[in-house]
From TrEMBL:
InterPro entries in alphabetical order: MoCF_Sase_C, MOSC_domain, Pyrv_Knase-like_insert_dom_sf
The protein, known as: MOSC domain-containing protein
One Pfam match: MOSC
Residues annotated as domain MOSC: 28-177
Gene3D superfamilies for the chain: PK beta-barrel domain-like
Length: 189
């Protein structure tokens, strides 16, 4: 079903799922989450058609919610551990922690099939905020850096919207479907 740019089959795995009804920085892990089409994660503070992130609501509460589901690759946690930071699934506020996919390399519009029914469409990069340093001092520098050309590199995961609802559990397969070209790089949303 899914292929990468080179034509290879691309699949990954759901490592963990997390949800929080409050606007908390971290989200506790759950046995499963339910994605609702056009809304996000059932029971999560960021559920909604329009933007739910507090700072964005303050700017313009009518903006579409392009941040319904937050995904982070578990490999980032491994890299952070190697740098001396203990970060577990859900700690950085993600709803879905993945394994085996380079999420940051996916183009905008990529569809991720999570488990048997759920489908999300990638909208962009999470823009890490200073709250990350309040969680672990020095962590912001680990997830935001500079590319050789001087551009900002954001590594704190990707955001998506729910196209098809369904339950998502740890161990579920993730299948990737790239959009028709040209492939647009992810920008912060």
């Amino acid at each position: 079903m899914g292929t990468d740019v080179g034509g290879r089959q691309v699949t990954g795995t759901v490592e963990a799922v997390s949800v929080s009804a409050g606007h908390t920085f971290s989200k506790p892990n759950a046995g499963e989450i339910r994605l609702l089409a056009g809304l996000g994660v059932e029971g999560d503070a960021h559920l909604g058609v329009t933007v739910q992130h507090r700072s964005r609501v303050a700017q313009d509460p009518t903006q579409p919610n392009l941040r319904q589901v937050h995904l982070i690759q578990g490999e980032l946690h491994d890299e952070l551990a190697a740098a001396g930071f203990t970060v577990a699934p859900g700690d950085l506020g993600e709803n879905v922690t993945t394994r085996g996919l380079d999420l940051l390399a996916l183009p905008r519009g990529t569809r991720l099939f999570l488990g048997d029914e759920a489908v999300v469409e990638v909208t962009g990069l999470r823009n890490p905020c200073p709250q990350i340093d309040a969680f672990r001092k020095g962590l912001l520098k680990q997830v935001v850096g500079r590319a050789p050309d001087g551009g900002i590199v954001r590594r704190a995961g990707i955001m998506s919207v729910v196209l098809a609802g369904g339950d998502v559990r740890p161990g579920d397969e993730i299948r990737v479907e790239l959009p028709q070209g040209p492939h647009l790089p992810l920008e912060r949303v």
